[in-house]
Design brief:
24% helix, four-stranded antiparallel sheet, 4 helices, globular, 22% strand, disordered N terminus, alpha+beta
């Protein structure tokens, strides 16, 4: 099962290991799902920013309330793993704010408008009490 984790801040253990990284590395894939991207983010900007970190096979931009999410397929599981392990909760070069990134799948792009980790949609999602 895919572990879904959402937090606005990285949680770091005394050993320095980020709990975000533990939660996001459990289901490796060559897809990475990004949230907390600026509202003006488009495919060209995503290619420019994240292409510096690995070979991109495909990009799906997902507009949302207050920001953009994206599903990016990298050239290998290893490239996507590096992205998830090193950029989750951190600043990617060229972005003004930290991003959230986890392993993804094509279903993330299809389901992003229905609530869940991607947010938005029909009132579902994390943080709803």
């Amino acid at each position: 099962a895919l572990v879904q984790y959402h937090s606005s801040e990285a949680v770091v253990t005394p050993s320095g290991l980020s709990l975000n990284n533990i939660a996001t590395t459990m289901a490796s894939s060559d897809y990475a799902f990004f949230t907390n991207l600026p509202a003006d983010m488009d495919e060209g900007k995503l290619q420019s920013i994240f292409g510096a970190y690995g070979n991109i096979s495909s990009i799906k931009v997902i507009p949302g309330q207050g920001g953009v999410s994206a599903l990016i397929q990298f050239g290998s599981v290893e490239e996507a793993s590096w992205i998830v392990e090193n950029l989750n909760g951190n600043l990617a070069q060229g972005l003004p704010t930290p991003i959230q990134v986890r392993f993804g799948s094509p279903a993330d792009a299809a389901d992003s408008g229905k609530g869940g980790w991607g947010g938005g949609g029909k009132g579902g999602g994390w943080g709803k009490d």
